[in-house]
Protein backbone atom coordinates (compact mmCIF):
# COMPACT_ATOMS: atom_id res chain seq x y z
CA UNK A 1 0.00 0.00 0.00
CA UNK A 2 1.37 3.44 -0.88
CA UNK A 3 1.09 6.57 1.24
CA UNK A 4 -1.83 8.05 -0.68
CA UNK A 5 -3.77 4.81 -0.29
CA UNK A 6 -3.18 4.92 3.49
CA UNK A 7 -4.75 8.36 3.73
CA UNK A 8 -7.66 7.29 1.54
CA UNK A 9 -8.25 4.27 3.77
CA UNK A 10 -8.09 6.39 6.92
CA UNK A 11 -10.52 8.91 5.45
CA UNK A 12 -12.93 6.11 4.59
CA UNK A 13 -12.72 4.97 8.23
CA UNK A 14 -13.40 8.55 9.43
CA UNK A 15 -10.06 8.87 11.19
CA UNK A 16 -6.63 10.37 10.76
CA UNK A 17 -3.59 8.35 9.71
CA UNK A 18 -0.88 7.72 12.31
CA UNK A 19 2.71 8.33 11.23
CA UNK A 20 5.53 7.19 13.49
CA UNK A 21 9.24 8.07 13.41
CA UNK A 22 12.43 6.43 14.64
CA UNK A 23 16.01 6.98 13.47
CA UNK A 24 17.61 3.99 11.82
CA UNK A 25 20.34 2.24 13.78
CA UNK A 26 19.10 2.86 17.31
CA UNK A 27 19.59 1.00 19.57
CA UNK A 28 21.01 -1.05 16.71
CA UNK A 29 19.91 -1.66 13.14
CA UNK A 30 18.10 -4.85 14.15
CA UNK A 31 16.75 -3.28 17.35
CA UNK A 32 15.36 -0.33 15.43
CA UNK A 33 13.65 -2.63 12.95
CA UNK A 34 12.07 -4.61 15.79
CA UNK A 35 10.71 -1.42 17.35
CA UNK A 36 9.30 -0.16 14.06
CA UNK A 37 7.59 -3.49 13.46
CA UNK A 38 6.08 -3.32 16.96
CA UNK A 39 4.78 0.15 16.15
CA UNK A 40 3.25 -1.09 12.90
CA UNK A 41 1.63 -4.05 14.65
CA UNK A 42 0.08 -1.65 17.18
CA UNK A 43 -1.46 0.66 14.59
CA UNK A 44 1.11 2.97 12.96
CA UNK A 45 0.00 3.48 9.35
CA UNK A 46 3.11 5.10 7.86
CA UNK A 47 6.69 4.91 9.10
CA UNK A 48 9.33 7.65 8.96
CA UNK A 49 12.88 6.32 9.18
CA UNK A 50 15.45 8.90 10.15
CA UNK A 51 18.76 8.98 8.33
CA UNK A 52 21.27 9.83 11.09
CA UNK A 53 23.15 13.05 10.41
CA UNK A 54 25.80 14.89 12.41
CA UNK A 55 24.22 18.36 12.14
CA UNK A 56 20.48 17.88 12.79
CA UNK A 57 19.22 21.47 12.87
CA UNK A 58 15.58 20.65 13.61
CA UNK A 59 16.09 17.75 16.02
CA UNK A 60 15.57 18.30 19.72
CA UNK A 61 17.72 16.68 22.44
CA UNK A 62 15.78 13.40 22.56
CA UNK A 63 16.20 12.60 18.87
CA UNK A 64 19.75 13.97 18.88
CA UNK A 65 20.73 11.52 21.63
CA UNK A 66 19.51 8.53 19.63
CA UNK A 67 20.99 9.84 16.37
CA UNK A 68 24.38 10.42 18.01
CA UNK A 69 24.39 6.85 19.33
CA UNK A 70 23.45 5.49 15.91
CA UNK A 71 26.25 7.45 14.26
CA UNK A 72 28.79 6.26 16.82
CA UNK A 73 27.72 2.70 16.02
CA UNK A 74 28.47 3.30 12.34
CA UNK A 75 24.94 3.63 10.97
CA UNK A 76 24.99 4.86 7.39
CA UNK A 77 22.67 5.09 4.39
CA UNK A 78 22.95 1.39 3.60
CA UNK A 79 21.61 0.59 7.07
CA UNK A 80 18.79 3.07 6.54
CA UNK A 81 17.85 1.34 3.29
CA UNK A 82 17.97 -2.04 5.03
CA UNK A 83 15.54 -0.67 7.61
CA UNK A 84 13.28 0.66 4.85
CA UNK A 85 13.25 -2.74 3.19
CA UNK A 86 12.30 -4.50 6.44
CA UNK A 87 9.39 -2.11 7.07
CA UNK A 88 8.22 -2.21 3.46
CA UNK A 89 8.00 -6.00 3.69
CA UNK A 90 5.21 -5.55 6.26
CA UNK A 91 3.13 -3.71 3.65
CA UNK A 92 3.52 -0.40 5.50
CA UNK A 93 4.74 2.66 3.57
CA UNK A 94 8.23 3.65 4.69
CA UNK A 95 9.61 7.12 4.08
CA UNK A 96 13.13 8.28 4.84
CA UNK A 97 13.37 11.48 6.87
CA UNK A 98 16.65 13.11 5.91
CA UNK A 99 18.42 16.42 5.78
CA UNK A 100 19.60 17.21 2.28
CA UNK A 101 23.35 16.95 2.81
CA UNK A 102 23.47 13.13 3.27
CA UNK A 103 21.32 12.60 0.17
CA UNK A 104 23.50 14.97 -1.84
CA UNK A 105 26.65 13.17 -0.68
CA UNK A 106 25.17 9.76 -1.52
CA UNK A 107 24.10 11.01 -4.96
CA UNK A 108 20.57 12.20 -5.69
CA UNK A 109 19.78 9.81 -8.52
CA UNK A 110 21.48 6.91 -6.74
CA UNK A 111 19.52 7.63 -3.55
CA UNK A 112 16.19 7.76 -5.40
CA UNK A 113 16.99 4.54 -7.24
CA UNK A 114 18.15 2.66 -4.14
CA UNK A 115 15.25 3.91 -2.01
CA UNK A 116 12.76 2.74 -4.62
CA UNK A 117 14.58 -0.60 -4.94
CA UNK A 118 14.29 -1.08 -1.17
CA UNK A 119 10.54 -0.60 -1.42
CA UNK A 120 10.58 2.89 0.06
CA UNK A 121 7.57 5.12 -0.50
CA UNK A 122 9.49 8.40 -0.58
CA UNK A 123 11.40 10.93 1.49
CA UNK A 124 10.76 13.84 3.84
CA UNK A 125 13.38 16.56 3.46
CA UNK A 126 12.93 19.11 6.29
CA UNK A 127 15.68 21.53 5.28
CA UNK A 128 15.07 21.45 1.52
CA UNK A 129 12.79 24.02 -0.10
CA UNK A 130 10.85 23.17 -3.26
CA UNK A 131 12.61 26.11 -4.94
CA UNK A 132 15.95 24.34 -4.41
CA UNK A 133 14.76 20.88 -5.48
CA UNK A 134 15.83 20.90 -9.12
CA UNK A 135 17.84 17.73 -8.55
CA UNK A 136 15.54 15.92 -6.12
CA UNK A 137 12.12 16.34 -7.69
CA UNK A 138 12.98 14.89 -11.14
CA UNK A 139 14.82 11.95 -9.57
CA UNK A 140 11.96 11.24 -7.15
CA UNK A 141 9.32 11.49 -9.88
CA UNK A 142 11.33 9.15 -12.11
CA UNK A 143 11.21 6.50 -9.38
CA UNK A 144 7.62 7.21 -8.28
CA UNK A 145 8.65 8.40 -4.82
CA UNK A 146 6.67 10.67 -2.53
CA UNK A 147 8.24 14.07 -1.91
CA UNK A 148 7.23 15.58 1.42
CA UNK A 149 8.15 19.16 2.32
CA UNK A 150 7.37 21.20 5.43
CA UNK A 151 5.15 24.19 6.07
CA UNK A 152 5.02 26.12 9.35
CA UNK A 153 2.79 28.71 11.03
CA UNK A 154 5.19 31.38 9.77
CA UNK A 155 4.75 30.29 6.12
CA UNK A 156 3.06 32.82 3.87
CA UNK A 157 0.04 31.76 1.83
CA UNK A 158 2.21 31.92 -1.27
CA UNK A 159 4.82 29.66 0.33
CA UNK A 160 2.18 27.18 1.47
CA UNK A 161 0.77 26.94 -2.06
CA UNK A 162 4.23 26.49 -3.60
CA UNK A 163 5.20 23.82 -1.09
CA UNK A 164 1.93 21.89 -1.36
CA UNK A 165 2.26 21.83 -5.14
CA UNK A 166 5.63 20.08 -4.82
CA UNK A 167 4.42 17.54 -2.25
CA UNK A 168 3.36 14.01 -3.09
CA UNK A 169 1.93 11.70 -0.41
CA UNK A 170 1.21 14.41 2.15
CA UNK A 171 2.21 17.86 3.32
CA UNK A 172 4.09 17.99 6.63
CA UNK A 173 2.60 20.80 8.75
CA UNK A 174 4.84 21.72 11.69
CA UNK A 175 2.56 22.53 14.62
CA UNK A 176 4.92 25.09 16.10
CA UNK A 177 8.17 26.85 15.41
CA UNK A 178 11.33 25.31 16.84
CA UNK A 179 12.97 21.92 17.18
CA UNK A 180 11.32 18.57 17.66
CA UNK A 181 10.29 17.34 21.08
CA UNK A 182 7.29 16.30 23.13
CA UNK A 183 5.17 19.07 24.64
CA UNK A 184 2.46 19.25 27.27
CA UNK A 185 0.21 21.00 24.76
CA UNK A 186 0.19 21.10 20.99
CA UNK A 187 0.30 24.65 19.64
CA UNK A 188 -2.99 26.24 18.61
CA UNK A 189 -1.31 27.51 15.46
CA UNK A 190 -1.53 24.02 13.92
CA UNK A 191 -5.29 24.20 13.29
CA UNK A 192 -4.95 27.59 11.64
CA UNK A 193 -2.08 26.37 9.48
CA UNK A 194 -4.07 23.36 8.30
CA UNK A 195 -7.10 25.56 7.55
CA UNK A 196 -4.95 27.89 5.46
CA UNK A 197 -3.36 25.00 3.59
CA UNK A 198 -6.73 23.43 2.78
CA UNK A 199 -7.61 26.50 0.72
CA UNK A 200 -4.78 25.76 -1.73
CA UNK A 201 -4.39 21.97 -1.82
CA UNK A 202 -6.27 18.69 -1.63
CA UNK A 203 -3.11 16.79 -0.71
CA UNK A 204 -3.42 15.24 2.77
CA UNK A 205 -2.10 17.39 5.61
CA UNK A 206 -0.26 15.72 8.48
CA UNK A 207 0.70 17.60 11.65
CA UNK A 208 3.84 16.89 13.66
CA UNK A 209 6.16 18.32 16.34
CA UNK A 210 5.02 17.90 19.91
CA UNK A 211 2.51 15.02 19.91
CA UNK A 212 3.18 12.54 22.70
CA UNK A 213 -0.07 10.82 23.74
CA UNK A 214 -3.48 9.66 22.58
CA UNK A 215 -5.31 12.77 23.79
CA UNK A 216 -3.04 15.05 21.78
CA UNK A 217 -3.39 12.73 18.79
CA UNK A 218 -7.17 13.00 19.05
CA UNK A 219 -6.90 16.79 19.19
CA UNK A 220 -4.81 16.91 16.00
CA UNK A 221 -6.99 14.28 14.31
CA UNK A 222 -10.01 16.54 14.72
CA UNK A 223 -8.67 18.85 11.99
CA UNK A 224 -5.76 17.12 10.21
CA UNK A 225 -5.52 14.10 7.91
CA UNK A 226 -2.52 12.67 9.69
CA UNK A 227 -0.76 12.81 13.07
CA UNK A 228 3.05 12.56 13.15
CA UNK A 229 4.84 11.35 16.29
CA UNK A 230 8.61 11.17 16.64
CA UNK A 231 10.26 12.24 19.89
CA UNK A 232 7.78 10.31 22.05
CA UNK A 233 8.70 7.05 20.30
CA UNK A 234 12.41 7.81 20.55
CA UNK A 235 12.03 8.53 24.27
CA UNK A 236 10.53 5.05 24.71
CA UNK A 237 13.71 3.58 23.28
CA UNK A 238 16.08 5.84 25.22
CA UNK A 239 14.45 5.16 28.60
CA UNK A 240 14.09 1.40 28.17
CA UNK A 241 16.26 -1.05 30.09
CA UNK A 242 16.72 -3.21 27.00
CA UNK A 243 16.00 -3.10 23.25
CA UNK A 244 13.17 -5.59 23.72
CA UNK A 245 11.61 -3.45 26.44
CA UNK A 246 11.99 -0.40 24.20
CA UNK A 247 10.14 -2.11 21.38
CA UNK A 248 7.35 -3.09 23.77
CA UNK A 249 7.10 0.48 25.07
CA UNK A 250 7.00 1.87 21.52
CA UNK A 251 4.24 -0.59 20.66
CA UNK A 252 2.25 0.40 23.76
CA UNK A 253 2.54 4.09 22.85
CA UNK A 254 1.52 3.33 19.26
CA UNK A 255 -1.63 1.60 20.50
CA UNK A 256 -2.55 4.65 22.59
CA UNK A 257 -1.94 6.99 19.67
CA UNK A 258 -3.84 4.73 17.25
CA UNK A 259 -6.83 4.86 19.57
CA UNK A 260 -6.44 8.63 19.71
CA UNK A 261 -6.58 9.20 15.96
CA UNK A 262 -9.82 7.22 15.97
CA UNK A 263 -11.43 9.53 18.56
CA UNK A 264 -11.62 12.47 16.20
TrEMBL record:
<comment type="similarity">
    <text>Belongs to the TrpA family.</text>
</comment>
<dbReference type="GO" id="GO:0004834">
    <property type="term" value="F:tryptophan synthase activity"/>
</dbReference>
<dbReference type="InterPro" id="IPR018204">
    <property type="entry name" value="Trp_synthase_alpha_AS"/>
</dbReference>
<feature type="active site" description="Proton acceptor">
    <location>
        <position position="59"/>
    </location>
</feature>
<keyword id="KW-0057">Aromatic amino acid biosynthesis</keyword>
<dbReference type="Pfam" id="PF00290">
    <property type="entry name" value="Trp_syntA"/>
</dbReference>
<dbReference type="InterPro" id="IPR011060">
    <property type="entry name" value="RibuloseP-bd_barrel"/>
</dbReference>
<dbReference type="GO" id="GO:0005829">
    <property type="term" value="C:cytosol"/>
</dbReference>
<dbReference type="InterPro" id="IPR013785">
    <property type="entry name" value="Aldolase_TIM"/>
</dbReference>
<protein>
    <recommendedName>
        <fullName>Tryptophan synthase alpha chain</fullName>
        <ecNumber>4.2.1.20</ecNumber>
    </recommendedName>
</protein>
<comment type="pathway">
    <text>Amino-acid biosynthesis; L-tryptophan biosynthesis; L-tryptophan from chorismate: step 5/5.</text>
</comment>
<comment type="function">
    <text>The alpha subunit is responsible for the aldol cleavage of indoleglycerol phosphate to indole and glyceraldehyde 3-phosphate.</text>
</comment>
<comment type="subunit">
    <text>Tetramer of two alpha and two beta chains.</text>
</comment>
<keyword id="KW-0822">Tryptophan biosynthesis</keyword>
<dbReference type="InterPro" id="IPR002028">
    <property type="entry name" value="Trp_synthase_suA"/>
</dbReference>
<keyword id="KW-0456">Lyase</keyword>
<keyword id="KW-0028">Amino-acid biosynthesis</keyword>
<feature type="active site" description="Proton acceptor">
    <location>
        <position position="48"/>
    </location>
</feature>
Amino acid sequence: MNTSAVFEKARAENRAALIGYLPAGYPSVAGGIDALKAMVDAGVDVVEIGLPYSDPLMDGPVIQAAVDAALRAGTDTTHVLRTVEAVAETGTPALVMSYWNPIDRYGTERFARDLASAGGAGAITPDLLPDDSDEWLPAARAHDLDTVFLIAPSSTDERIALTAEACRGFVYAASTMGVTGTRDQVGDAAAGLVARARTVTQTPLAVGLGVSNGDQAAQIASFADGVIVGSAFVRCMLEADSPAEGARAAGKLAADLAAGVRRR
